[in-house]
Sequence to fold (925 residues):
Amino acid sequence: MIEIDNLTKIYGDTHAVDAVTMRAETGSITVIVGTSGSGKTTLLRMINRLEEPTSGEVRINGEPTHVEKPHLLRRRIGYAIQGHGLFPHHTVARNIAAVPLLLGWKKQKIRDRVDELLSLFSMEPAAFRDRYPAELSGGQQQRVGVARALASRPELLLMDEPFGALDPIIRAQAQDDLRRIQQRLGSTIMLVTHDMEEAIRLGDKVAVMDGGRLVQHAAPAEIIAAPATDFVRDMVGDVERPLRLLSLIPLVELIEDGPADGDALPADASLRDALSACLWTGRSAVPVTREGIVVGRVTFEAIRNRAELHA
Amino acid sequence: MAALLSPFMTIAANRIVAGESVMAWHVASPAETLPGVAAVVLGLLFGIPSGRQDLRLCGALLGLCGILWLLMQGAPALLDSAAGDYARVSPAMGFWCLLLILTLMMADALTQMAPGPIARAGLLAAVLCSLALILWSGALAPLSILQEYAGRRAQFADAVLRHLALAFGSLATAAVIGFPLGIVCYRRAQLRGSVLPVLSLLQTIPSLAMFGLMIPILGWVGDNMPGAQAIGIAGIGFAPAFLALVLYSLLPVVGNTVAGLASAPAAARDAARGMGMTPTQRLLRIELPLGLPVILTGLRIVLVQNIGLAVIAGLIGGGGLGTFVFQGLNQTATDLILLGALPTVALALTSAIVMDILVELAQPIPKDSP
Amino acid sequence: MNVGLILRPLLVLLLLALVLRPEWFTPIFAPLAPPGAPTIYARSSLLSLSLSHLGLVAAATFAATIVAVSLAIFVTRPAGAAFKPLSRTIANMGQTFPPVAVLALAVPALGFGSGPTLVALFLYGLLPIFENSVTALTTLPPATMDAARGIGLNRWQRLLRVELPLAFPVMLTGIRLSVVIALGTATIGSTVAARTLGEVIIAGLLTNNTAFVLQGGLIVGLFAVLIYDALIQLETFLARRTGA
Fold:
């Protein structure tokens, strides 16, 4: 568990981060979202002490971070940033091995770990191990960057706009990969982004920052349904709020018996997908399948009623 | 082509007076000059098509062989034909122009062919070896410049050694001072802001003035500091020249060290810090390897610059090849000037090529990886 | 830079005094002169030496700038593109020739006097200006160049209104390098009998008169530092104006 307690950073007269207190459970993804200058990156960088807090403290599993030497602390915390920050003169394998090398792991153990991570990120180890970062595509570079951050099995992974430099299609793919890998490894992740869509998609919890203050810290559905301030409402985007909310709810919740025509949707698709299908093909209901077998339908009516309920 | 039509060599009654010109095909008997002239013409013809770089390289080499052949044939033949024991033969305008054109042709062809560092080093070694062989064989000994050399064998060896000591010694000293200074400047922007401008002002001071200003300063140190004279610090001679060269070298060393270290991408530096590397680890694993080519480029600048500037040491009694240049200027003896200037140019060119090869070998990211 | 604000006028005054009223400095230089020798260089006026020195540098740099910039424009046009690699090779090789050697080698060809010095200054001055101009003209922001084409400027208009103004600060850096080298090489030019301030230093070296050496060294050094500084200020000013 990560506890952030009254953490403050003052530069000159400005409170870059102003008395932020929050907790993140082990094995969860917390997304810190805000506009530029909201203090979200400073908050993240105070966790691994790339910035020293003016006051307040951070505890990882109950242990305060300020008692340890900063560089030793950072070796326990994964760190992935926008534009990947790979070392251009090291091969992919050596990049991923950076922290294990610092920790003095045995050669064979490092080699196994590198191959394991490459496979996990769907990159054939034999093909990629000895390449240089400049020879990879943007998406591949970014995956290697995240793999490097995970290499030593850190207790916590900090990510600063990790997908910022990717184009939309590759970004969506990278987000899905991250979610999949996080669930598989059970990692604890804190991720900074300015993109509310990304926050809602990835976060178990979303922390909205504004002017150095934490204005709301809640599950995505609650952020959408009950924005704490006008700022959060703006971030979510008033017009798209219902759609964003529907995108968080799986079809399973509204399955009912009855006939429906046309193409079916899988049960783990979202209500947003179903709504879209209804509108596009002029149907009032879509069939729902589970493992290829039709198990019922979701009606336009039911979706409308569900949206009215908010969260 | 016009160069071939201008005088190839001159012959003079002694080392001071102006000589009379001789055309390329007259330097020796027609049978002896023909192969040379033919090789030059053929070589130049090869150089005309711009597409085939290998052909141009061959042409340049062929042409160079041609002018060397002409020189080797011409020198003894002309000397025999001339009256008087003090007669001197030297290459003239035509030779120098052809040499320049053919060398440029070769350099251009090589630039376009872009051979790897090993191939370049091999080529350089081959050229230097053949040059040494020709000089050692004595085929060119009748030439005036080599007659000047023959008269000062020991002095020449001394001067070359002194010249190298000045150039490389000051380089090493500047590196020992400059690297740490560069690293500190890189870390501290404030220090960098005051050190670099001062160093560039130092670099601005004209060389002769700098060498001159060292004289009173070191003279004072030599007279007033106990023991300073014992280790050779005095107003005139090696010490002021050496110190002036070190001062000139500091800017390229410090400046390029800072620039080299800063050339690591900002994101990579941030990532290195974020994953828990100590400042020393970041320096050794990230910043130095990535900056090495830029740092070596600084050393290249210093080396080439110092080999040239060390000539001026000749004016303040610091020795080196400059001694011959300035003696030659005083006596209006062209060949003596050349005896000082040509080896200097050759040294500078060779060091530049060698350093370029080193810079390429220091590239941290292999170019031809799969 | 408050230091600069005070230091600059002081150095200018010092330089003017050294050139115009050298006798003021007799008490300072006297201990350095050998007994019985003159303390202050009087064989010719320091002012005329300075003017001749600066004149040589200015003439050589002016000519070098015109030729080098024209050549740079030529090799960056489609018509001259074929000569670009060759010209770069020449510039690279040329810069490894030591200035002193260029000067010494010009003497056999041109004799003594200001002639060889001028030629050496000109030839050596070409290289940095040419190199910087080519770099500047080939690294202009592509978006700007596209926009210039897009709004319908023809080649000449693009060159005169967009390319040259944008490239000018970098060209100026080349000119500054060239001026600094020229000032230094001109000093050595007095060894081949050019009338420059180097004469004072050489005279001092030949007669073991450290007073002359120091006097000449100070004047030349101050000229170089002040001219360098002035050109830097100009560059900073221009760079700020073009927002680079």
The radius of gyration of chain A is 22 Å. Chain A is about 40% helix and 25% strand. Chains A and C do not touch (no CB pair under 8 Å). Chain A has a mean pLDDT of 89.
